[in-house]
Design a protein that fits this description.
The structure holds two protein chains of two kinds. Chain A is globular, with a radius of gyration of 17 Å. Chain A is built from seven helices and two strands, in the order αααββαααα. In chain A, strands 1-2 form a two-stranded antiparallel ribbon. In chain A, α2 packs across α6. Chain A is mainly α. Among the domains of chain B are: 43 residues, no CATH class; 77 residues, Rod shape-determining protein MreC, domain 2 (Thrombin, subunit H). Chain B contains four helices and twelve strands; from the N terminus they run ααααββββββββββββ. The relative contact order of chain B is 0.13. The chains are: A mainly alpha, B alpha+beta. The interface between A and B is large, with 54 and 43 residues.
Chain lengths: 184, 265
């Protein structure tokens, strides 16, 4: 029951994250956008047990896929298949990382958020290159992938410490680190 | 593994496969639903952002306030002197401003809309506006400002819509160059630098920087003829055609209000 409430709160955070990231100002000089959805996704899959985290990854894929959905002449440019595969893969990897570090850790969440953002933007770019043809690998393209990832790395701890109190409240099994941690 | 966990995973797998097999119509319907869910958050967030922006503009140091006060005082004296002669003209001016407002002088039926935010998608250039199907907005309607073409509507919910900007690689517009017979197709680029590429021009086209480019309004297209699209920055011949780089007419980085073209007057 309590786990279900945490799951619903995290689900509600997904459209909120999308709406907020659209309202945030662009980062100069190339007007890169801050990506909050990967940060919320990382928190969700690390906070939830395996099976709910897979459902959460599916919900994230649905939201991300619909946000980026572009239908040109009746053809879907980027459907839901790519986001579903992408977020499920990362959900499993982050669950493994959580297990390897004996529970949720803010460092893993921050690094995970940056890695998910980096790979998400990279995969989107590559899929578009395959579908539209051409591979314009220029410095601006690189910056458009790297800067939002660095922004995610910096924003992730803020979200982690704002939300971490929810985890022991709503989960019977506490996923916060069980072993003493000298870096904390 | 417990039976319940196996059942949950089976349901999960079915859902994941079903998501992957959804067709464009269903996806479009789901997208409208998501925009509907996000609409109150985007609208209230945009209002808060606007209030914060105004607050930030109003915050000044004491020195700035003193300088501003002196400037306003001096301007006030000057304006009071001028005002005596202009009082009668003020009413006429206000009336003419209203009459000459873009919406009125446009030959299109326009629905004004506020820009709620620029989408965070990195490889697509889109914005969200506060009008939707409740205002008669449908996909593929052109979006303009008094300066020129902004883009077209791609997704609609009851009171929120998504606009694909002309600087997106997928927003293709038939265009003609002022003072020439040159016509081509304009689109943005994947490396979003905010410029337009006008292709399929003649290799020998004599285009000069500063020449205006307008929509060509081809039959079956969605953009009416004669809307300002951009200004030529440079031109170069390619292997098979000529390509011009355009500066968009509308300032797409600072959009606050736009008009949706719902038809001709």
């Amino acid at each position: 029951m309590r786990q279900g409430i945490l799951f619903i709160i995290l689900l509600l955070l997904l459209p909120i994250a999308v709406a907020v990231q659209d309202l945030l100002p662009a980062i100069p000089p190339f007007k890169e956008r801050v990506q909050l959805l990967p940060v919320v996704f990382c928190f969700g899959v690390m906070a939830l047990p395996l099976v709910p985290s897979l459902y959460f990854a599916l919900a994230t894929a649905l939201v991300q896929g619909l946000v980026l959905l572009q239908i040109q002449s009746g053809q879907v440019e980027l459907g839901l298949t790519e986001p579903v595969v992408f977020f499920l893969t990362w959900a499993i990897l982050l669950q493994m990382a959580s297990e390897a570090t004996h529970g949720m850790r803010w460092e893993v969440h921050a690094l995970g958020s940056a890695a998910v953002t980096l790979t998400l933007l990279g995969v989107e770019f590559l899929v578009l290159c395959v579908k539209r043809g051409g591979l314009p690998l220029e410095m601006t393209v690189l910056l458009r992938v790297v800067i939002p990832s660095v922004a995610a790395l910096l924003i992730a701890p803020l979200l982690y410490f704002a939300l971490r109190k929810l985890v022991p409240v709503f989960l019977e099994e506490n996923l916060l680190p069980k072993k003493p941690n000298f870096s904390r | 593994m417990k039976k319940i966990q196996i059942a949950t995973l089976v349901v999960f797998a079915v859902l994941a496969i079903a998501f992957c097999l959804l067709e464009s119509g269903t996806l479009s319907w789901l997208q409208s639903g998501l925009l509907g869910v996000m609409s109150p958050i985007s609208r209230s967030g945009s209002a808060v952002k606007s209030s914060i922006g105004t607050l930030g503009k109003d915050l000044m140091t004491l020195d700035q306030l003193q300088a501003e006060y002196e400037r306003v005082l001096s301007e006030n004296r000057k304006l009071r002197a001028e005002n005596n002669g202009l009082r009668d003209l003020q009413q006429d001016n206000d009336h003419l401003r209203q009459v000459l407002g873009y919406r009125e002088r446009s030959s299109f039926r326009l629905v004004p809309a506020l820009v709620l935010g620029h989408d965070a998608g990195v490889w697509w250039s889109t914005i969200k506006i506060n009008r939707g199907s409740a205002d008669g907005i449908t996909p593929d309607m052109p979006v303009i400002t008094d300066k020129g073409l902004v883009g077209k509507i791609t997704a609609v919910s009851s009171n929120l819509s998504e606009v694909l900007l002309v600087t997106d690689e997928n927003c293709k517009v038939a265009a003609k160059v002022e003072g020439t017979k040159e016509q081509g197709i304009s689109a943005g680029s994947r490396d979003p630098v905010g410029e337009l590429r006008l292709t399929f021009l003649s290799k020998l086209a004599d285009l000069q920087p500063g020449q205006k480019v307008y929509t060509a309004g081809v039959s079956g297209g969605i953009f009416p003829s004669g809307i300002a699209l951009g200004t030529v920055k440079s031109f170069h011949a390619r292997e098979l055609d000529g390509e011009a780089i355009l500066e968009p007419s509308a300032d797409l980085g600072a959009l606050e209000e736009v008009f949706i073209v719902t038809g001709a007057k």
